[in-house]
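Hey, resending since the last one bounced:
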Amino acid sequence: MTDPTDQEWLAQRFEDHRSHLRGVAYRMLGSLSEADDAVQEAWIRLSRTDTTDVENLRAWLTTVVGRVCLNLLRTRRTRREGPLEAYVPDPIVGPERGMDPEGEAMLGDSIGLALLVVLESLSPSERIAFVLHDVFAIPFDDIAPIVGRSSAATRQLASRGRRRVQGVPVPDADLDGQWAVVDAFLAASRDGDFERLLGVLDPDVTLRSDGGTARPGLVTLVHGPQVVASSAMTFRAVAATATRTLVNGTPGGVAWTPDGRPFAVISFTVSGGRIVEIDVLADPERLAALDMSPVEGRTPRG
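The structure tokens again:
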């Protein structure tokens, strides 16, 4: 057993890695609350383990979080309600001027909702193998025991995940240019201008809306500019109350109810100067759990 001084020292070392671990868990789970649960479980396991022979605590904790996340992903598949295709992962919302340090630490290299949506389509083992190896450079030999496969089989899991991710649209590098496209979309939605909406939508645009079980009418997945533009016309009131925000580092908005509660978080992926994906989280239960403090009290842009 370690004495209290050792525990304090270990707790401080764990805190040094907390932001990294939350980022790992968020990529694996797409859920902020579950990511926090996974990190807490990693601390519990660390506090009960003799780490005398652990040479790289960061790597050791990363693999522990991987095991916890794998269990959570497997459990989630048996209890999730609603269609997976329309599921929108938890967004990280920040002010339009830029993410705060905690948000930056969580996101690291940009991880937009479009990528998280694709990760949701992977099997739990594929997701763990891909994220740990391709994002965090954990060797396959260290991942294999987590997923219960050989190193060669684990390599194949990551490869399958990689093939799926290759089709994710990459946002334009110019953030101001992205904002110009998003502002044009919101203005056209507010004005009910169908033709202007078509002008900013990519031919392969996708609109994904997740209202959860509380708002089944807002659970939808549609493709193509004509259908998306028609759907966007129904979001005129949403566009009218939207506050410009960054959502996972890319342009988005938060729409508010008259009493000041968030009604929806909208994320736009702009690639090639047009909107290729719109992801809307309108599930009131999940919205209530999000940290909106960076944008609360801000006035919508007209």
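The chain has three domains: 1-80, 114-170, 175-289.

Sorry for the duplicate.
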